[in-house]
């Protein structure tokens, strides 16, 4: 008897509802009905209000802090597993806790590995995510991981700017691979910032490797948290003779005084995706949606079609 591909069902965690609505619209299917009950002490319980037995289920939720975002995704995965869903795909536009991907000093956790194990235990049979902090995090999972690149949505926007003397920049040594990939696609030069940290989120020293005189610079990074590195790099490059400095950051965490730093910096523009909802608007922040990218990949996964074209940065 031939395999029949039935319709997939798409559900969302509360923290990613706006993006999920866009993904569902682009996919061509409605969001499934989920009700979340909350106890007086803050404990909550999601409930699928429709059958998922034998279905392919996509559950969309970024896992940025606070920890309730991760917990909600885990509870929904467990509920789908216990409701006998056939395939349970966790669609995680931003995979949080990914900066803890190794032991950089004694007696610390490898949180990214722990989260990967918990997601699989909760019921995820596949993971779809975008711009992991480190590519090797894919190896923390025993289930298939589709690691997408936001360059798919960023490159068309960059090309539309028609910038002369374009130079791609990495704000740190760790992002050099990403910067080189963008420079290859745009046929541009590359410069790299070298930074030293006094502690997490605090830069003690920064130097520039390369020449930006007379260049329109685009900084590329996977996330922007406090915006300290990004704004320091932008100010340094303008001081070294750059014509303009823009930044592309996939995940807009934007904690602490990040919005204030961006507004007061020499950054002309910060381009981000909607993997994480913005806390407030800013005249310098432009959002490019990743909804179409996720919708297309979800369709291809459900139809057992290749998605290799989306792995090319």
TrEMBL record:
GO BP annotation list: 5-phosphoribose 1-diphosphate biosynthetic process; purine nucleotide biosynthetic process; ribonucleoside monophosphate biosynthetic process
The organism's taxonomic lineage, starting at the top: Bacteria, Pseudomonadati, Bacteroidota, Flavobacteriia, Flavobacteriales
Protein name in UniProt: ribose-phosphate diphosphokinase
Start and end residues of each Ribose-phosphate pyrophosphokinase N-terminal domain: 9-123
UniProt-listed CDD domains: PRTases_typeI
Coiled-coil ranges (or none): none
Source domain of life: Bacteria
Catalytically driven reaction(s): D-ribose 5-phosphate + ATP = 5-phospho-alpha-D-ribose 1-diphosphate + AMP + H(+)
